[in-house]
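From the pipeline queue, job 12 of 40. The input is one protein chain; the requested action is below.

Action: predict structure.
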Amino acid sequence: MKVALVTGASRGLGAEIARALGADGWSVAVNYFRNGTAAKAVVTAIEARGGRAIASGFDVTDEDAVTAGLDEIERALGPIDLVVNNATGEQPNKAILDQSWDDHLAQLVFFVKAPTLILQHLLPDWRQRKTGRVINIGSEVVDLGNPELTPYVAAKAAMLGLTRSWARELGPDNITVNLVAPGWIPTDRHATSSAESKNDYARLVPLGRQGDPSDLSGMIVFLASDAASFITGQTFAVNGGRTLA
């Protein structure tokens, strides 16, 4: 049974991705930083459907924590075959004149530093086995250029560049790297969002609705499958056509 690590998987889209991979036959490490109770609930849901999973608590932005966390996963489940880089932090709205360099760094640590730390740990094993999958969770904001969100938008754009560069460098080792860019898909994180704001967003979507978490997880399951073994360096928008070029 292949092993997947989903970062930031205790709630929201990460939890849905973890559950979907578990249902598809993956052993899943459900990463979390603070909410161990929620992560264990995701594990229970996977196990209830006959899957195999563990809750894996560590800070993906801390090098020592990443090393210890990945070692623990490998002892419990076996060698990791897939990483879904989903972990994120807060994304405060700030006008340009109110933004600091630290605001940018706060986003870059999630979308550049954390994926790099994880890949660097796994790469020697992947190169030896000639296998490995990375799926980065990007965002439609890179195409839309949302105002007052520059640090987040810029960091997600950096993640896109990272995806493309890694795909070229790692292709000869049979390691694929892709990015999935969802639109606004409401989860428990958006419990306080108004119906008006959701309706305003949906009116700008050609399919006329907001996405469901399963819309995103379905794409992740596909990219993790053997059917996607010849796909790398690509961006897949899961947003109902919101960013039609």
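Job complete. The mean pLDDT is 96.
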